[in-house]
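We modelled each protein-ligand pair independently. The example shown here corresponds to the pyridoxal-5'-phosphate entry; the chain sequence is given first, followed by the ligand as SMILES.
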Amino acid sequence: MTEKRTLNTIDTPSLILDIRKVNANIKRLKDHLSSFNVSFRPHLKTSKCIEVARMMMTTPSGPATVSTLKEAEQFSAGGVTDILYAVGIAPGKYQRLATLARNGTGITVVLDSVAQARDLAAYCTASDCEFGVLIEIDCDGHRSGVKPHDSATLSAIAGELAGTPAKLKGVMTHAGASYSESTSQALIECAEQERKAVAGAADILNEAGYPCEIVSAGSTPTAHFARDLTGVTEIRAGVFAFFDLVMAGIGVCQPEDVALSVLTTVIGHQKEKNWILVDAGWMAMSRDKGTSKQKVDQGYGVVCDIHGHIYEDLLMVDANQEHGILSLRSSKGTLPDLPVGTRLRILPNHACATAAQHPRYEVTEGENLAVIHQWQRFYGW
Ligand SMILES: Cc1ncc(COP(=O)(O)O)c(C=O)c1O
């Protein structure tokens, strides 16, 4: 008989996913969005895992958002047939996407320049391949996109695509500036700015004779803090399913909602320094220190016991490749007694970055230590 796998027996470090929290996090966003007349196109880049994708999507075939061609190929193979590749399109990406489109997966790409539109339209015409196209709108200066009021560029892009198999379906935006906020009021304002920008750009195109069937917006903070979605047809969000300490710092969730953690083992102590050493370093946690610019710096992560209960003020304060250094946030407290061999869990700053360090999820449920599934994740581009 094979021995039951539990958090007491599996190798450390390992990536742990609490399916109860994932379900609760997904339900929370879907419940919020159900009061608006919008569809949901979850971003699948955090999990890179078909089982998690199926929990997030509204149907097994999508719609879905991806950030790499690898995600597009893997999720297409997993039965997703409506995929938005939401990173600016470049010629080197056409062929792999065209293979998916020819095999029956609906592929939509994003672009924000006349040159991109002209090149894509020429490719689609020459190769008789149909893609959907969304024009990316820059709602907050965070990254790429056409300025929302730039009607000349919007119309020129639409004009390049008109009558070609690169079919303009609408507009999309992503309120990345929301990641720098930390109050409800600021997040509500980010969501409204995102809505106004993308709905306004759609109005410009509609009036110019280029109908927008898709008006797509979203990030986890703005999806949760949207109070009005007039003019928006779909919302995208990704990290909401797992959450992480950055999202807790922004105020979208509590650290207790974070579904992802790294299981680690105590391997030593430096008593005079108030250090506990563990076998998870930056290879297991990633180098992401995304909370260092927030009000509360969580170092490399927040320490929990094996069941997932947070130790107050105990952090991974530093990390070598395969060593993590745990210590108290302030020198006043006393370290818990955690002998060599004790198993702990570390909540990550950035779920996408930490998950990317691991080949699979060890899936648990709530405080139970039993591993109920092993779900593979893929990596690369
Ligand atoms: C284009 C786009 N849409 C949606 C998302 C999802 O946002 P979040 O990670 O906040 O859920 C991202 C994240 O980077 C994105 O780049």
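The chain has a mean pLDDT of 97.
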